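Model it.
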Amino acid sequence: MAPILCFLLLSLALSSSHLVSANFYNDFDITWGNDRAKILDNGQRLQLTLDQSSGSGFQSKNEYLFGKIDMQIKLVPGNSAGTVTAYYLSSQGDKHDEIDFEFLGNLSGDPYIMHTNVFSQGKGGREQQFYLWFDPTADFHTYSLLWNPQQIIFSVDGTPVRVFKNSEDLGVAYPKNQAMRIYSSLWNADDWATRGGAVKIDWSKSPFVASYGNFKAETCSASSDCSVNSWYGAEALESSKQQKLEWVRKNYMIYDYCSDSKRFPQGFPAECTRQASN
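Modeled.
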């Protein structure tokens, strides 16, 4: 390919999307918790802490409209019952859009629950929950969101765990018009998080600590053209990824709103016809 053409294509890609391999000082603001939230190692690590007085949280400086986002997280170890570590994208307002990972703590030796949800135009209630196939407190693991106009893919260490497809043709709103920030927080949710609130936080084990690192994002702003990015137009998982998705759903999914007939006795939501497989 001619050098001038290569340069033009690279310039177009860089002007149309925002590629970040982050320094937490540059890309995030600590928003609550005072000194319970700390940026460490010259901006390469961020740590959230929960004690009996307060939790803590942070948010991205920028808003994004579509993107591919990776964050490495090491969750609260030991007896984490009653705690929730949340990592999500969200816009603002009553009709907000939101794409959620939440990690529900548990008693020592019991598995974390990874809770996912998608809100569009203020409507959520699209919960899917999973156990993880590793100890998420022993080391850092990568939790990823790919969000484009066709679908949202939740992945863990490169393994897809959930695909939420655009079903606007079925009358289901889809997050595509509101730019969102990245948020994360560690907080006290012992009124519901562990066994429906039956197990409370053991404050003798505090402070509780979650750690973050290796944030990477390839994202778009509301005014940019994302179509040059390979992830922007992706509509289907390749066969190996589809097999991994089915493996996770078969072996580690513990709740799917699209299978909850008690909750939806009159019939499942319209998008459920497309969420079970890619």
